[in-house]
Amino acid sequence: MTPPSPGIPWRKSLLVRLLLTSVAIAVLSVGATAWLAVQITTRAVQEERGQVLSDDSTILRKLSGFAATHADWTGVQSTVRTLSRTMDRRIALTSANGRPIADSAAPGIALPVRASAAVDPLSTDTYTEPGAQLVGIDPRVVGPYLLPRAEREQVKALAEKRLACMRRYGSNGSIGRVPGGRTVIITDGGEASVPTQCADGALNTPTLTEKRALFVLSALTEACLDREPKHATLKGKAVPFAPGRVSIPAHGNVRWVGGNQQTQSCVDSATRKQLDPYVAPRASLYLGNLRQQPAGFDLSPANKAKIFGVTGLVLAITVAMTTVVAIRLVRPLRALTAAAQQPPQQHARVAVTTKDETGYLAAAFNDLTARREQMESQRKAMVSDIAHELRTPLTNIRGWLEVTRDGLLDPDPGLIASLHDEALLLQHIIDDLQDLAAVDAGTLRLHREPVGVDELVAQVVSAHSTRAEASGIRLLTRTDPGLWLDADPVRMRQALGNLVANALRHTPTDGTVTVIAQPAGDLAVLTVEDTGDGIAPEDLPHVFERFWRAEKSRSRRTGGSGLGLSIVRQFVEAHGGTVTADSEPGTGAVFTVRLPRRPDPDSPSQ
Predict the structure, then answer these.
(1) b/e per residue, 480-512, with b = 16+ CB within 10 A?
(2) CA angle, corner 163, sides to 160 and 167, nearest 5?
(3) Which of 423, 371, 373 is nearest to 400 (CA)?
(4) Are residues 361 and 46 in contact, defined by beta-carbon separation less than 8 angstroms?
(5) Radius of gyration of the chain from Cα atoms?
(6) pTM given for the model
(7) What pLDDT score does 280 carry?
(8) DSSP state, 280?
(9) How many C-beta atoms lie closer than 10 Å to residue 133's C-beta?
(10) Helix (H, G, I), strand (E, B) or coil at 63
(11) How far apart are CA 267 and CA 518, in angstroms?
């Protein structure tokens, strides 16, 4: 293993921390996996032995009863919670498409992998034989066959009359009530044990409510038979629920008496269709642990040896893989550290050997080094340029003063004017440098106020008109009225003035400099055009750089410091605008400033 870098304690080494983290994760993973395996295995064994089957059957029976007596699942949540507390089980219901209906567990807890049963009282009977699931309709689904109170009392009276008659003839039985509300007589021998004198048929005659429901069922059955070509002859000859063809057994379901298998199939299909609006939709029932149960599972010595062996193997593999990965990760970081510790003037770089995060970091470090080297070169060039710019006026002033001091020249007005011009040039360079320093330091303060563009252009042109006339250059303007800016008027005059001064310096006699101001959507566009020699395409990207000149001799002759255009860019960008330069050699140059407009402060809408 590669030792950590000198001066870094072992406990703070990235390699050591990666190893310790991997070991901790491996231990936790193996332990958690073993614990979960024991828990899952124990619970699976308990369920296979039937320790919870009885409770699950009761839960299914009660939820099927709820579905049989409700048209939807509204209100089932309270039933689910009550059953969950009673049976100490987690209970959850979902619709056929998986949408949650009710759950006794807290939100966010995942459902068991598989559903325990389907709750569908139209297909499964959990009522007739408790603990069993029979194929058929749950008797608790009564729907339109539910008798009102008056009819229940009527049927009850008929049942009591028949039971009294049976007892007079030596037969016995008891009275019961099916879910639909019909009272029935329960005997050991069924209908065959009823004495002939008592079998008047009144008790089994459908009531008015049942007749209405049977009429609908008959129509549904006939429609089903119509779809069966080989049974089409039955229509009109054997109405399914005509008198003598109906049986209402003790569990309350209506059955067709007689007929073949196809006919009974249509009866069953029609019955389910008739009862479907009265039952809750089919749902999936999920049953699980309400809370963690004791494992109740002891590991044998052999199983313990297997677990410890696998754990040791996982730890060994984890440590080996982490060591390899950590070394590959730490090596480029150490190379970066060594490069960063080199003297700044060496501009050390590192080799990019990978395409992962460390590779990107090494590439970013090299880019940073390249930018630092470029900035250092620019700094040196800037210092040299500043020294050169300041040396020229200072040398002139010193030379004239020394000549005057030695008595070789009288201080006439022309000499004083020349010295004054050199001092102004020196002051101008110092002011420009001060402005750029304020921008670089972030201390430039803008005093914004509404500024009319036409007035701004007029002031700048007026300030440079004398120089333009002296040079024989036409200085023209073309502005749109009502164009306003939210800007610092002093800084904007300085920026636009620098562009005009630059154009005048590079425009020959009889040339033209034009200042244009016009709107462009939400922007105010100020353009300074000249008819000078223009700028070469390779020089355009550099015109806004400090102390940059396309022609040193011409710039020195015309008196430019190389800072004016740089100041223009800084001031325009401080106002949220942009400045660009376009030119073709021999046709002049065009400088365009784009700034955000502001509404006319004198407009009635303001």
Answers:
(1) eeebbbbbbbebbbbbbbbbbbbbbbbbeeebb
(2) 140
(3) 423
(4) no
(5) 50
(6) 0.41
(7) 92
(8) P
(9) 15
(10) helix
(11) 88
CA–CA separation, 209 and 181 (whole Å): 11
**Using CA atoms, how far apart are residues 599 and 605, in angstroms rounded to an integer?**
9
Give the residue, 517 or 237, on which the prediction is more confident: 517
115 with 100: CB under 8 angstroms? no
CA–CA separation, 442 vs 400, rounded Å? Answer: 39
Nearest to 517 by CA among 584, 595, 603, 598: 595
Q: Which of 506, 514, 515 is nearest to 471 (CA)?
A: 506
Question: Tokens 């922007």 sit at which residue?
Answer: 523
* Residue spans of alpha helices (H) in 472-524: 489-505
**Quick one: tokens of 373?**
């080297």
Partnered with residue 519 across adjacent β-strands are 524
Summarised one tens digit per residue, pLDDT across range 464-493 is 898 899 899 999 999 988 899 999 888 888
Q: Which of 534, 530, 541, 531 is nearest to 585 (CA)?
A: 534
Q: Residue 23 corresponds to which amino acid?
A: V
DSSP structural state of residue 31: H
- End-to-end CA gap in the chain: 75
- Say if CB 364 and CB 350 are below 8 A apart: no
CA–CA gap between residue 540 and residue 340 (Å, rounded): 36
| Rounded CA separation 242/257 (Å) | 10
Task: Give 67-93 pLDDT, tens digit per residue.
Answer: 889 999 999 999 999 998 888 889 999
- Domains of the chain in sequence order: 10-47+298-340 (no CATH), 52-141+281-289 (no CATH), 143-278 (no CATH), 344-443 (1.10.287.130), 445-598 (3.30.565.10)
Task: Please report the pLDDT score of residue 24 as a whole number.
Answer: 74
| Side chain identity, residue 111 | L
Query: By C-alpha distance, which of 568, 597, 479, 581 is closest to 540?
Result: 581
What pLDDT, on the 0 to 100 scale, is given for residue 451? Answer: 92
pLDDT tens digits along 346-377: 777 777 776 666 777 778 878 888 887 777 77
Task: Report DSSP state, residue 368.
Answer: H
Which of 127-131, 254-258, 304-308, 504-508 is the least confident region? 254-258
Looking up tokens 């009531």 gives 207
Q: Measured between alpha carbons, how far is 86 from 193 in angstroms, rounded to an integer?
A: 42
Strands (E), 259-382: 283-289
Name the nearest CA neighbour of 496 among 532, 537, 466, 525: 525
CB within 8 A of 114, min separation 6: which ones?
A: none
Q: Are 533 and 584 in contact (CB under 8 A)?
A: no
- In the 3-class helix/strand/coil scheme, how is 535-597 assigned residue by residue? CCHHHHHHCCCCCCCCCHHHHHHHCCCCCHHHHHHHHHHHCCCEEEEEECCCCCEEEEEEEEE
Q: What is the pLDDT of residues 140-154, one digit of tens each?
A: 898 898 999 999 999
Q: Which of 513, 518, 539 is nearest to 528 (CA)?
A: 513
The H or E element spanning position 485 is strand 484-487
C-alpha span between 515 and 480 (Å, rounded): 12
